[in-house]
Amino acid sequence: VLENQDLQDSIKPQKVEFHSLNFNTTLHWQPGWAREARDARYFVQYKVYGQSTWRNKDECWGISSRVCDLTHETSDIQEPHYSRVRAALAGVYSNWSLSCRFTPWRETMIGPPMVTVVHSNKSITVKLQAPRSPYRRKRGSKIPMTNYYDMLYQVFIINNLLDEQHRVLVYEGKDKVIKIQDLRPGVSYCIVAKMYIPVLDHSSAYSSRQCTVL
Asked: One short Pfam family name for this protein (predicted)?
C-alpha cells in the first residue's frame, strides 16, 4: 500500500495552468517528479466556478499528451473557470491537481493586428485587421476580438535611416485604414502595430514588421 501511495504522489501532475490567446484556451501541465511519470496517462475535468459537479473532458480522458484544448468549454468568457488533472500509471491513480481560477475575458492574451502597407511616393497607407476569436457567427465567419472589448489600434513607424529600434507612435484609435503623410522619398520605413485595451490596460505584442521604401 505504501508503494502505491508513493507512486500516487510521484506521478501527480504539476503546474496545471491555463494558456489563452484570443480566447483559444488550452490547459497545460507538467508530469510528476518520478521518472516513470512520463509514461502516465492523464484525465482532465472542468467546471465553472460555483458549479458543484466536475465534468469530464472526453477528448482529454486517458491521454498521454500534457495539453488539453478547453476553448469550447471556456466560451462563457465572463465566468471564472477551473480545471483539474489526474494521472494514472500501472493501475494507480494520483490525486487531482487543480488549476488556478481562469476568467477568459480578463486573462486571455490579445494577439497583434494584421498589418498591410501600401506606399505612394510620400505617404504610407496602413490597413489594419483585428485578431479573431475562435467563436463563429451564425454565417460561419470568426468573430473579431473587437466585438468583445473596446480596443484601440496603435500604429508605430520606424525610420530605418535613424534607428531600427526606435518606434514612434503615429496613430491611436479605431480606424482600420490610416494614412501617414509627408515622408521622405528614398527612405526605408517599417510599420508595426499593436492592440490596446484601455479598460484592462492590456497591450498585445507588436505585429510583424511591414517595411517599404518610398
From this structure: Tissue_fac
138: cell is 451564425
Question: Which grid coordinates belong to 10?
Answer: 510521484
Cell output for 15: 503546474
Query: Cα–Cα distance between 31 and 87 in angstroms, integer?
Result: 8
**Run of H or E residues at 4:** helix 2-10
Task: Supply the range of the domain harboring residue 167.
Answer: 114-213
SS3 (DSSP) at 7: helix
Low-confidence ranges of the chain (pLDDT < 70): 1-3, 164
Q: What is the Cα–Cα distance from 173 to 193, expressed in whole angstroms?
A: 12
CA–CA dist 111, 129 (Å, integer):
11
Cell representation of residue 2: 505504501
CATH of residue 64's domain is: 2.60.40.10
Which of 106, 138, 158 terminates a domain? The answer is: 106
pLDDT, tens digit (0-9, with 9 covering 90-100), for 110-144: 999 999 999 888 899 999 999 999 999 999 999 99
